[in-house]
């Protein structure tokens, strides 16, 4: 890190404006002090200069920085890890102060009540804002997807379905054909029949797809680079305590919302569900700035972000309970019981808001409502488990292939041309998707059709069975029937769609546009499940006398439900990619309303997880965290190596000695030189260089800000002034400059372990307490320091991976 010119920086430079672009250099690191993103505003005015405390006869009096808070002390630099213990301690102190003052006056009591209520009010606002944005995204994406195929003459803002709702000339069998909706060929050449009309529709489809994707990638690149991808790996990292300034800011929210609609509408193999978690977390982070206790405390803010992640899944799938479980199982690092209740409330508000908007126009909250008429049989668990095995194999293959492609993007010239990459992938997707009706339609429509149970009035190719004499039963169930010509055609088209989706999703996920993985993974599984379901159905029809069908599948009965197989396949593939279990099953039955099919879903989910774990331990989000080098300690990963703290701590035998600060023996100039010559984020404070007895730990950022603040506010502080971390200041020589007392910024109880502490215990301490660093001692003497990054490098080394990959990129 370049630290030249460190001493020339004045504390006045920390006073930033309100825009996101205001940046300030401190100790060579770029820090964002915008008041609208992730850091409290520094609104004190020190421009007058020289406000200090004077003693008798104008002699400067020693100031203790505990007397009044210094703006900026206790905050964190970009790409640093928060100190969970310090943040929780600050919140407890704040709470004690409010509780003690509440007994003094009615006004203080009201402030105490409002402080307690502010968390619930914040959850209400997060739910309302996220639900409204999700509704707008759903409606816009549906309209723009249909715009690729045609336009409504009654009003260009109507999508295909809404356009034909009010038409009196539409029959039930041809409910998608109405004179008000015109394809591009009808508008341009006057006819929708013939090869020229087909080519015109094809051309317009590709042109719209390219336009949407070009707008999406251009907006992301120009205004908010953090708006690309799904956002879940980064949110997991942020929730573990890492700081990425601007990732949850207002520009990211605005651009991600717009470009998500464009990316989904372009027809790329991606979904909007993962990015909606990012959108909800942006809402939570921005609204935190309305409440002081969340604005000024990073740990409290992460409780809100955990609840916001639950809100994101709630509005993405219409699954509030699944959203809470998703946040608990998949993304959250610290999830106390209070956060569980608030997540539940926020998810409820968001789901209610989305239901009020009614974006799907079916008065239901669920995305793919299913109504299967026949129960499943115990022997069907065998094909369900086979689907689980397929999901696990597909998940492991997808993760390896996608990570290999993303690594190639990072390490070759491919990564230098993000716009070109998006346009090429969009062009290939559109050119290959249009001829096949199952890849031309939006992925959500495809999944909905695959989940559907065929009824008498269904006009889908998948339901075009051979006519047999049907006696209408009271349960609406149709007996298994022989497949007609259209069903076999649909099977071939679905087989091609399956291969296409499996390959194109590998290169699409991770491009510089918002891209979710839930819907494409579900589509792959739903296609495989529907193919297996139709195969089982025909097997049962033609061979109902086989042993496996005897006793429960008689001729003329409705034995096999292909839509159920599609639902189980979708669950298995999504589980194989993400390694979710409990939350996935709950999301799926909330998503479809298929409550009685929990056991098949559970069987497929567990099978896919076991198979995928056998082929590779990491889910897709953990793999992307490792690829990007985020400092994330995975709680699911076991540490089984017999190493000690002394093997991991720094300095090593060949390294220079540990940089420390003595409690009463160093001048301002010496401390500034130490800061300028090193890039460490903090320094241990010892009694003396000889004794190395530990006194405390001080953060680099707090030290920099406090020294600059003292130069501004305390008269006479110069480079020769002594710095004290002791409780009482020893007597000074008569003509010496006034000393500087910085005991108030020192952590008096840093976490320490002995040099013989087993590393598995140290790793557990870091995981469960969320530490930034831990000091290593021997018989009370300071030996070294272990940081979170040291542990991650050591774990990578033990797993035969490159330890230098643990570097934020």
UniProtKB/TrEMBL annotation:
Location of the CBS domain: 649-715, 746-803
Cellular localization per UniProt: Endosome membrane; Membrane
Predominant localisation class: membrane
Transmembrane segments: 117-137, 202-227, 248-270, 276-292, 304-328, 378-403, 415-434, 490-511, 517-536
Membrane topology: Multi-pass membrane protein
Record carries keyword RNA-binding: no
InterPro entries: CBS_dom, CBS_dom_sf, Cl-channel_core, ClC
Top-level division of the source organism's lineage: Eukaryota
The keyword Transcription regulation appears for this protein: no
Cellular component terms per the entry's GO annotation: early endosome; endosome membrane; Golgi apparatus; plasma membrane; synaptic vesicle
Stored SMART domains: CBS (SM00116)
Keywords per UniProt: Antiport, ATP-binding, CBS domain, Chloride, Endosome, Ion transport, Membrane, Nucleotide-binding, Repeat, Transmembrane, Transmembrane helix, Transport
GO molecular function: antiporter activity; ATP binding; voltage-gated chloride channel activity
Family: Belongs to the chloride channel (TC 2.A.49) family.
Entry protein name: Chloride channel protein
Species per Swiss-Prot/TrEMBL record: Phoxinus phoxinus (Eurasian minnow)
Classification lineage: Eukaryota, Metazoa, Chordata, Craniata, Vertebrata
């Amino acid at each position: 890190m370049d630290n030249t010119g460190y001493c020339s920086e004045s504390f006045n430079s920390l006073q930033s404006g309100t825009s996101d672009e205001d940046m300030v250099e401190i100790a060579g690191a770029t820090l964002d002090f915008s008041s609208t993103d992730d850091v409290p505003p520094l609104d004190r005015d020190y421009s007058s200069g020289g406000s200090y405390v004077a003693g008798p006869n104008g002699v400067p009096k020693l100031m203790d920085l505990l007397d009044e808070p210094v703006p900026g002390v206790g905050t964190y630099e970009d790409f640093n890890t928060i100190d969970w213990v310090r943040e929780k301690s600050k919140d407890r102190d704040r709470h004690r102060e409010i509780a003690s003052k509440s007994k003094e006056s009615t006004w203080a009591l009201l402030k105490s009540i409002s402080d307690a209520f502010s968390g619930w009010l914040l959850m209400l606002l997060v739910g309302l804002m996220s639900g409204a944005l999700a509704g707008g995204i759903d409606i816009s994406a549906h309209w723009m997807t249909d715009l690729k195929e045609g336009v409504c003459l009654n009003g260009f803002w109507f999508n295909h379905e809404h356009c034909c709702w009010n038409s009196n000339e539409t029959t039930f069998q041809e409910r998608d054909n109405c004179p008000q909706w015109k394809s591009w060929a009808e508008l341009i050449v006057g006819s929708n029949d013939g090869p020229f009309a087909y080519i015109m529709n094809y051309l317009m489809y590709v042109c719209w797809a390219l336009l949407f994707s070009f707008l999406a990638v251009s907006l992301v690149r120009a205004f908010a680079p953090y708006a690309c991808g799904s956002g879940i790996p980064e949110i997991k990292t942020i929730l573990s305590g890492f700081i990425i300034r601007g990732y949850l800011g207002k520009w990211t929210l605005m651009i991600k919302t717009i470009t998500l609609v464009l990316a989904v509408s372009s027809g790329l193999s991606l979904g909007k569900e993962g990015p909606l978690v990012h959108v909800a977390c942006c809402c939570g982070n921005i609204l935190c700035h309305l409440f002081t206790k969340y604005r000024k405390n990073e740990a409290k803010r992460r409780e809100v972000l955990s609840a916001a992640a639950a809100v994101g899944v709630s509005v993405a799938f219409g699954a509030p309970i699944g959203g809470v479980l998703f946040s608990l199982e998949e993304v959250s690092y610290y999830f106390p019981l209070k956060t569980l209740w608030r997540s539940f409330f926020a998810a409820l508000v968001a789901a209610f808001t989305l239901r009020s908007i009614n974006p799907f126009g079916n008065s239901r909250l669920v995305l793919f409502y299913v109504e299967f008429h026949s129960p499943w049989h115990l022997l069907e668990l065998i094909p369900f488990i086979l689907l689980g095995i397929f999901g696990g194999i597909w998940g492991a293959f997808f993760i390896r292939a996608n990570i290999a492609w993303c690594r190639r993007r990072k390490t070759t010239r491919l990564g230098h041309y993000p716009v070109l990459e998006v346009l090429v992938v969009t062009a290939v997707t559109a050119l290959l998707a249009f001829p096949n009706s199952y890849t031309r339609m939006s992925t959500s429509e495809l999944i909905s059709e695959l989940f559907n149970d065929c009824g008498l009035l269904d006009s889908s190719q998948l339901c075009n069975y051979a006519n047999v004499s049907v006696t209408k039963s009271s349960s609406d169930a149709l007996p298994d029937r022989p497949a007609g010509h259209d069903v076999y055609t649909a099977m071939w088209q679905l087989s091609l769609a399956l291969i296409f989706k499996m390959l194109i999703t590998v290169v699409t996920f991770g491009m510089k546009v918002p891209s979710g993985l839930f819907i494409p993974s579900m589509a792959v599984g739903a296609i495989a499940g529907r193919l297996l379901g139709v195969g089982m159905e025909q097997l049962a029809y033609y061979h109902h006398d086989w042993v496996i069908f005897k006793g429960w599948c008689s001729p003329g009965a409705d034995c096999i439900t292909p839509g159920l197989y599609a639902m189980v396949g979708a669950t298995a593939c999504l589980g194989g990619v993400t390694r979710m279990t409990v939350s996935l099953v709950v999301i799926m039955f909330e998503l479809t309303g298929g409550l009685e099919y929990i056991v098949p879903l559970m069987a497929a989910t567990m099978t896919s997880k076991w198979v995928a774990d056998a082929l590779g331990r990491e889910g897709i989000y953990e793999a992307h965290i490792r690829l990007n080098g985020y400092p994330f300690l995975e709680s699911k990963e076991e540490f089984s190596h017999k190493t000690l703290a002394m093997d991991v701590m720094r300095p090593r035998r060949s390294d220079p000695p540990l940089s420390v600060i003595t409690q009463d023996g160093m001048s301002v100039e010496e401390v500034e030189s130490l800061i300028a010559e090193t890039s460490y984020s903090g320094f241990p404070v010892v009694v003396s260089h000889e004794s190395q007895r530990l006194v405390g730990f001080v953060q680099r950022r707090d030290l920099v800000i406090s020294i600059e603040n003292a130069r501004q506010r305390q008269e006479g502080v110069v480079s020769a002034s002594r710095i004290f971390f002791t409780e009482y200041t020893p007597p000074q020589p008569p003509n010496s400059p006034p000393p500087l007392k910085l005991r108030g910024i020192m952590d008096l109880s840093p976490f320490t372990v002995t040099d013989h502490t087993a590393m598995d215990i140290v790793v557990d301490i870091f995981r469960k307490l969320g530490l930034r660093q831990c000091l290593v001692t021997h018989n009370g003497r300071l030996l070294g320091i272990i940081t979170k990054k040291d542990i991650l490098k050591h774990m990578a080394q033990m797993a035969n991976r490159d330890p230098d990959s643990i570097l934020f990129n």
